[in-house]
Write a structure and sequence with these properties.
homodimer, 406 residues, alpha/beta, L-amino peptidase D-ALA esterase/amidase, Ubiquitin-like (UB roll), 2 domains, 11 helices, globular
């Protein structure tokens, strides 16, 4: 299995106010990093967005609760066990893991945010946490981002990270983040996670608004198989260690920082697609001239989730009838078929409800042969645009998801 | 590829008032039956339900138009070309095919309903219709149901039919039907079709209401890959040749006929699933104690369409976390997780938001090893129930849909 046009990021910049510790706690497997502790400065402000799955995991519930009450000082991430579908015991175990961090570090349990990813439905082995948390704490270092990117992996084939420095209002500002995720859920292996930090100081309400907006433009616009995990979480941290202070979201420096963060979020989200289960293609689905965001997304997701479109992508087969049929069943009412136009990159395939007169099978096949291209759909109903990123459906996807436990 | 627990139906009873003719018209391929003409008695009443895909094919549009204006005398079905995504020329070709039937048979063009299934986006070869229609007409016979079942196949591996006779109010009544469909769309090969006839006399408005209700309990409750075709059509014909007259849908004889028709519709619909692309499992998804039909269907379809649930079915892996996660992302609001219960046949896997205490991996695996079983989900919110039927996602599915044109 190979990721699509994926280069492992190496040049991490430390973020003032953040230290990371990694250890082999043995949550499920031996001899692999499976626990990461992230320490935040007292000045840090944290925002988060979480899975909308009704069966959200115990740590997600605890995380949201603690985030509402405190400015967190520690984030604890374990792989190997999602602590999902575990009932009341699962909640107690998530709380106990926070207490263990509190005992080790001297903060309160509510200042700890827990994140779990891995098997669903198995009880957490708390002895691994008793072992791992002190070990991760003693490993804390500002230069551990690269190891942390590997430490949060489950079935990812490659670690995912991004880092940049840019001057904003004369202040050199750092943005660094890591993410994980391959399918939305692997054979009981769950979860998309993203942790992105900047050393700027950002007002808490601005940061929370941004986190939602940024996730909606990145992690909430990727889909591999449409299966939302029970544990998905994306955290945005502003450590407040640089002189750059953002309190007004409309200021020029706020907009510049937002733009840089958006790029970081999108790189980290797209890395999950590029490393998607069995992925051989990285495909952008762009829907424009829609009447609403909902209909733009309905069309885009229907195309991106269609098994027939996805197998055609895998086959490099410019089977445009499947794209047409997927758009048609997306639930948008009162379509004017005459106005719908479909392009592969810049090659138009559909106009006036049928095949474009200028289209040739050769031109379509040349695009489908590429490892990375865009399906661009114009609805001719308004001026709204939405974009998402997806992969193909390959034999490898079936193998990964069917053969894992057997 | 083998269909799941599928026995080819052989004992067709003719329906008074219906004759069928089959021919090799050469619409796309040579040396295979690809055109079926069905002649209805003047006394026959016809009802239909059609795809909701906004990009519905030209023959579907013409079919709906003609059905609204007349009591049809002929149904013309061709395989090899769906006449979908063909723009204005497609409409003209569909109308012209009706005119050819009218010329051959002496009816009016509006008394002909056209049905097409096959490649999307290619113009119809009208010379095949000029050749085929007279040949099919001269082949008309009341005993041709079995050949017609084969004549409407595209990528189906087996012909699908059902026939029964039952006494209703002292009148021996015949119900006979055929259907086709394997994926919702194969590599440009489209369409579910169903044609079911009885010799009873049924009031037209009752028949139309029934056709919708029956399709909703059968063809609209099957899903292989979630891709609704541009050409799906289901027709219910009452020839009025037997002394049984149904004008009041609430009468005892009406309810008995409805019940017999429902069985026929479900057998024909389930046959499509059993012969689904790459299917190795036939799975019933039953959602009960829901607050509404919409939420019951949302849950059932989310589970049935989840690639992770489907690959687990293929692997015979009792990976119940995937079922749980699919239910959780189905969009039902204010779930009380404590009340959700999940069973595999009679083996309970989930209670109180976690794994059932009595559940064992062995018990779950024993069910998943079966070729046919039910995933039963109780939501604990009301008294509504919905059932649908689906298959697994196998390597064969990817091969069929990815390798066909390559």
């Amino acid at each position: 299995m190979m990721a699509v046009n994926f280069e492992v990021f190496k040049d991490f910049c430390a973020v003032d106010g953040i230290e990371l510790g990694i250890t082999q706690a043995g949550v499920r497997y031996q001899n692999r990093d499976d626990m990461v502790l992230i320490q935040l400065a007292e000045t840090a402000v944290t925002a988060g967005v979480f899975t909308l799955n009704a069966f959200c995991a115990a740590p997600v519930t605890i995380c949201k609760d603690h985030l509402a009450k405190t400015n967190p000082r520690y984030l604890l991430i374990n792989t190997g066990n999602a602590n999902a579908g575990t009932g009341p015991d699962g909640y107690q175990n998530a709380i106990d893991s926070c207490k263990l961090v509190a005992q080790t570090t001297g903060c309160s349990a509510e200042q700890v945010l827990p994140f779990s990813t891995g098997v669903i439905g198995e009880p957490l082995d708390m002895t691994a946490f008793e072992r791992g948390i002190p070990a991760a704490f003693s490993d804390l270092s500002r230069d551990n981002w690269e190891r942390a990117a590997s430490g949060i992996m489950t079935t990812d084939t490659l670690p995912k990270g991004f880092s940049t420095q840019c001057e904003i209002s004369g202040v050199m500002t750092t943005i660094t983040g890591i993410s994980k995720g391959a399918g939305m859920i692997m054979p009981n292996m769950a979860t998309m996670l993203g942790f992105i930090a900047t050393d700027a100081s950002v007002d808490k309400s601005v940061l929370q608004t941004w986190c939602k907006q940024l996730a909606d433009a990145s992690f909430n616009r990727i889909t591999i198989d449409g299966d939302t995990s029970t544990n998905d979480s994306c955290m945005l941290i502003a450590t407040g260690k640089s002189p750059l202070v953002i309190s007004d979201a409309d200021s020029a420096e706020a907009q510049q920082l937002f733009s840089e963060l958006k790029n970081a979020f999108q790189v980290l989200a797209q890395a999950i697609v590029r490393d998607g289960e069995g992925a051989t293609k990285f495909v952008t689905v762009e829907v424009s001239t829609a009447a609403s965001h909902k209909e733009a997304l309905d069309v885009a997701y229907t195309v991106a989730h269609s098994p027939l479109v996805k197998t055609a992508l895998f086959a490099s087969d410019a089977n445009w009838g499947r794209i047409l049929a997927a758009i048609g069943r997306s639930g948008v009412e009162n379509f004017d078929l005459e106005k719908v136009q479909i392009f592969l990159d810049d090659v138009q395939i559909v106009e006036n409800g049928g095949r474009c007169v200028s289209y040739t099978e050769e031109a379509g096949s040349a695009i489908f042969a590429k490892s990375e291209f865009a399906i661009r759909i114009q609805l001719g109903r308004g001026d709204i645009e939405e974009t998402l990123w997806t992969t193909d459906l390959s034999h490898e996807y079936v193998s990964i998801n069917a053969d894992y436990r057997s």
